[in-house]
Design a protein that fits this description.
mainly alpha; two-stranded antiparallel ribbon; globular
Length: 395
């Protein structure tokens, strides 16, 4: 029964289901059960690294939802990632990274602050932190999206505006007097719900939460893109003016998908911070937002599965090159993006279709080259079959 259910699923869903099973069951088993010296053993640092990759995959899904299906290219989604990360960092510091009678984080004590800023209050509660992780990016996305989408700002102009906004916020957070740690950001996290973050068990739990977040986000995005709402989003991407003439209001659809993608990135940032142990303004750098777009393009935009694969592939290459040849990584990243654009425009997910189209063109070319001979043979076979049928009828 399970096998028949798996076969009846669409191919992309089967791929994600298989990857989820490997990530949630096989990888933890190889980490916990396999001996440390064995070839199949998965070390603890790989678990932490893959947890980061799943956070990146969640960002890539968010970009694919707005760019691949709706045609909105954002170069500033690092803002929302950092918002979620800073909210989680403030919660971790309020609970286990404070010192002194006023309950100040270490960096505030170092800068001779006397009292906690008003916007730090409430983060000792995890429920309040969750609300901030969801509501602050949501409100920011709605306000920004309302004014830009209502003004009919599209295409490259929208991309430039998002890049300018994320750059401006990055410069603001770099200042020491903003109360967010300045250049160093927030660090010194120790515990989450009483569990030490340095313990392998805590890292495994955060890794599994990241896997579950990506799987849930994929199912949600698949449900949206396969519905009437998804068809409206695709119509906005392909012919927004025609959709307006049909009586639809693109503003509402754009605001919805824009806000949802912002929340997805914020959740990714919140999961990322306790696994990495730091959040600073560099996460808002425009280059980070551009990398999110590259993950989506390499994987294949408009496919949902492709961006997940692309985020893993590009970040695995980044991890390897930054350790082996750090000076070459930016050149490799540029080569990956240019090569994908020129030779694989549909990304990894479209590689199978590219092979099928190439095979079909090859077959057509072979037929055209052997056309006259094949046509004569077909005429001979037709005449022979006709005479055989006439003889059979006479008998």
């Amino acid at each position: 029964m399970a096998a028949s259910f798996f076969r009846n699923l669409p191919a992309p869903s089967r791929t994600v289901l298989g990857l989820t099973f490997v990530a949630a069951a096989v990888v933890p088993a190889l980490n916990l059960l396999a001996p440390e010296g064995a070839v199949i053993h998965v070390p603890d640092y790989v678990i932490q690294l893959m947890g980061k990759f799943f956070c990146y995959a969640l960002c890539a899904l968010a970009i694919d939802l707005i760019w691949g299906f709706t045609g909105i290219l954002s170069l500033g989604h690092g803002i929302f990632f950092a918002m979620g990360g800073y909210a989680m960092g403030m919660h971790l510091l309020r609970n286990h990274g404070i010192s002194g009678e006023a309950g100040l984080p270490e960096f505030m004590k170092f800068m001779d602050w006397r009292e906690l800023p008003w916007f730090w209050h409430g983060f000792e509660s995890f429920a309040f932190t969750l609300l901030v992780i969801v509501l602050v990016p949501l409100l920011f996305a709605l306000v920004f999206g309302f004014f830009t989408f209502r003004s009919r700002i599209r295409g490259v102009y929208f991309s430039i505006i998002t890049q300018a906004v994320t750059f401006a916020l990055m410069l603001l957070f770099f200042r020491n007097d903003t109360g967010f740690g300045g250049n160093n950001g927030l660090t010194g996290f120790r515990n989450l719900f009483g569990f030490p973050l340095a313990e392998p068990g805590t890292k495994m739990g955060l890794y599994l939460l990241s896997v579950a977040a990506v799987a849930g986000a994929y199912l949600l995005c698949r449900r949206i893109t396969g519905s009437k709402l998804g068809r409206a989003l695709t119509a906005i991407r392909d012919a927004e003016s025609r959709l307006m003439f049909c009586g639809y209001d693109p503003l509402r659809y754009k605001l919805f998908v824009w806000a949802l993608s912002a929340i997805m990135c914020a959740v990714a940032g919140a999961l990322y911070v306790p696994q990495v142990g730091i959040i600073n303004p560099s996460e808002m750098a425009p280059a980070n937002s551009i990398e999110m777009v590259i993950w989506t393009a390499v994987g294949g935009r408009g496919t949902l599965v492709g961006p997940i694969l692309g985020s893993f592939l590009v970040n695995w290459a980044k991890s390897w090159f930054t350790a082996a040849a750090p000076d070459l990584w930016l050149y490799v990243l540029a080569a990956i993006f240019i090569g994908t654009t020129m030779f694989l425009p549909m990304g990894i997910a479209g590689f199978g279709g590219l092979i099928a189209r190439s095979r079909a063109r090859w077959n057509r070319s072979a037929k055209d080259a052997a056309g006259p001979e094949d046509g004569a043979a077909a005429l001979v076979r037709t005449a022979a079959s006709s005479s055989d049928s006439r003889r059979g009828g006479a008998n």
